[in-house]
Amino acid sequence: MGAGMLFEELSALATEGGRAVVRAVGTAFWPMTQRRAAELVGRGDAERVSAELVRLDRTAQALTPPPSGDAGAERARQEGLWAGRFEALLDRLEGTEQSGAAAELCALLESLTASVGDTAIDTGNATARDGSSAITGIRNVGGSRPGPSKVAHTGDAEAAGPGSSAVTGIVNE
Question: Which stretches of sequence are listed as region Disordered (predicted)?
Fold first, then answer.
């Protein structure tokens, strides 16, 4: 990668970018995320921006799983795909271009962090026993949330025994 930022910093930023793109799919923030990610990777070239929009559409379609699909594996694949695209972008740029693209990606991440709430996907099953808790979704306790929570394909949570509690889905307490 270029000399402007350390390899580890750029790689971590690209990884977070991939996660953020995938996390935004299906939320109210997807159109903004899609546009900004396409413009970032396309670097002002209308044809490249258009091609990135097509790739982002494919990502959204891939993350609308069929009833028996492995959504977790597909999410991981798409996160890796977008992390790779961001890393390749940052790798081919130098100096102020690289730092500018990194700043744009950071700004996208900050806007999503401030707007997208907790996410739970493919959580599996859990059983609470002997007064413990089992959660296969999101339990928000007090305080404000950065944005709407999103759950999909959560497993079953079961409470067995007195004092045990279980949460499947989203619970705000």
Answer: 140-173
Would you say 166 and 133 are in contact if contact means Cβ atoms under 8 Å apart? yes
Q: What is the pLDDT of residues 37-81, one digit of tens each?
A: 999 999 989 999 999 999 999 999 998 865 566 778 888 999 999
Pairing state of beta strands 133-135 and 165-167?
Answer: parallel
Q: Tokens representing 160?
A: 């067995």
pTM of the full structure: 0.65
DSSP three-state, residue 37? helix
The secondary structure of residue 168, as a DSSP letter, is -
Cβ neighbors of 95 (< 8 A, separation 6 or more) are 2, 3, 4
Could you give the CA distance from residue 18 to residue 8 in angstroms, rounded to a whole number?
A: 15
Per DSSP, what are the bridge partners of residue 157? 126
Region at 69 (left for phi over 0; alpha for psi -120 to 50; beta for the rest): beta
Structure tokens that stand for 44 in this block? 């002002």
Task: Report how far residue 173's alpha carbon sits from residue 171's, in angstroms, rounded to the nearest whole number.
Answer: 6
Backbone angles phi and psi of 26, in degrees to 5: 85, 0
| Cα–Cα distance, 59 to 80 (Å, whole number) | 11
Tens of pLDDT, residues 106-132: 999 988 876 556 666 666 777 878 888
- Tell me what the mean pLDDT of segment 125-152 comes to: 70
